[in-house]
Write a structure and sequence with these properties.
alpha/beta, Rossmann fold, seven-stranded mixed β-sheet, five-stranded parallel β-sheet, 17 strands
């Protein structure tokens, strides 16, 4: 077993600046009554990157973890030639999260959600005795399922029924992983609601989403990969967003890297993107509104169904919360770009042609936003650009493999009774 020591850190409330100890699984500052994210304050102000044999935990100096789990892989950053030439960019760096052995990318779930899962589960104490609950539109569930199955961590997933084709694996999962679903017609928000009902049972533990510092600091390893490879903080950061958590994480990593002192003192301009017609954060941003604009529930479900990148269909993102995406975009002079299905498909095709590997629809959205930013003059040829490819290589990985799919243990109506959910789900873990 490799030598590994728990990371030393404290927590800080973004709204008040109050520092406090992490008493185990804190998602908020218990002394603050408003809505604010909390952040990690690491004892080590300069990042010491371990060797590749540590997988994702090579960045554990800046991950709030107490243990190292088996099977992780870090994001891979490389300087683009093909796509860069196509776009006329001299300093385009791609951070690839997925499966592409040619460049050393070995994430078998093919998504950067692995960075979240290994970090969150590494924060959990092995003897906590509770069942982790994760609501997901697909890729997050696949990543947590793999990590929890491989490391024997009890897990309950809540995923919309029409998204469960995303729950593919090379082999059957450990029985410690269970799946429940809102019935067809439900969306990610319905899956979140269902998971919240389960949490009335004290045996279950909310993963916490964007509020979990381990989730954000796990995702932040994409920026740590890029900056330590490039040797400096980029000028621009491109990513598609559903909740915006990855972009918030990138902003937070940027601030730590400035404090490190070895990589420059600039803030990356965060250029994030959403898939038309599902544009709640885009519409709010263009209206200069911290709060999301009214969005009819039926229309939101319709729009979520219409987009290719369904993992981006979060109706309740951490946008306006203190320390959330609105603040990140304001602080970095960022922007949100809207991308159509046609534009993301063309961008994904171009990426395959120029970089040699397939990418997910969300990564296609990010690539399309970069193309649009270059065409509009927002990005110039000499700018140092980080393109976060949040998922790719699925076709590459699946080729020649027989897949196994996780099936739901229970499917609930869109408005189930709390008692019914608690009793039936509780029985799954007897």
């Amino acid at each position: 077993m490799k030598e590994f020591y728990p990371t030393q850190y404290t927590l800080r409330c973004v709204a008040t600046g109050r520092d406090f100890a992490d008493e185990g699984w804190m998602l908020d500052d218990p002394q603050y009554q408003g809505q604010s994210l909390i952040r990690t304050q690491y004892a080590k102000k300069q990042l010491n990157v371990k060797d590749d044999s540590y997988g994702l935990y090579k960045f554990s100096d800046w991950m709030p973890v107490g243990r190292m789990l088996n099977g992780s892989h870090a994001p891979i950053t490389y300087k683009s030639e093909g796509l860069a030439h196509e776009l006329g960019l001299e300093n385009l760096y791609i951070t690839f999260n997925g499966y592409y052995p040619k460049i050393g990318a070995l994430m078998s779930t093919c998504s950067f959600k692995e960075t979240e899962a290994y970090s969150v589960c590494g924060r959990m104490k092995g003897e906590c005795g509770r069942i982790l609950v994760v609501a997901s539109a697909g890729n997050t569930a696949r990543a947590f399922a793999k990590v929890c199955s491989d490391n024997h961590i009890p897990l309950l997933l809540s995923v919309p029924e029409e998204n469960i084709n995303a729950l593919w694996f090379e082999e059957p999962l450990n029985e410690c992983v269970k799946l429940i679903c809102p019935v067809r017609g439900g969306d990610y928000f319905d899956a979140i609601h269902l998971s919240n009902l389960v949490l009335k049972d004290e045996r279950f533990l909310a993963e916490g989403g964007a509020k979990n510092v381990a989730r954000r600091d796990g995702m932040a390893t994409t920026v740590l990969s890029a900056v330590t490879h490039i040797g400096r903080i980029p000028d621009f950061y491109f990513q598609a967003v559903g909740s915006g958590t990855g972009a918030i994480a990138a902003w937070e990593a940027n601030m730590r890297l400035i404090e490190d002192g070895r990589f420059g003192d600039n803030k990356m301009r965060l250029i994030v993107s959403q898939n038309t017609p599902f544009l709640p954060m885009y519409e709010a941003w263009k209206a200069n509104s911290r709060e999301l604009l009214p969005y009819n529930e039926e229309q939101a479900r319709h729009d979520a169904e219409a987009i290719d990148a369904k993992v981006l269909s979060n109706r309740k993102p951490p946008y306006g919360i203190q320390g959330g995406l609105f603040d990140a975009l304001k602080d970095t002079d960022g922007d949100i770009i809207a991308v159509t299905n046609e534009e993301l498909r063309a961008a994904a095709k171009l990426f395959l042609q120029t970089e040699g590997v397939d990418i997910y629809s969300a990564a296609g959205v990010a690539t399309a936003s970069l193309i649009k930013a270059v065409k509009s003059g927002q990005v110039s040829k000499e700018n140092v650009v980080m393109l976060n490819i949040t998922g790719g290589g699925e076709k590459h990985y699946q080729e020649g493999r027989t897949l196994w799919y996780l099936k739901p243990s229970l499917v609930f109506p869109l408005n189930p009774s709390q008692d019914d959910v608690v009793v039936k789900v509780g029985a799954l873990f007897q």
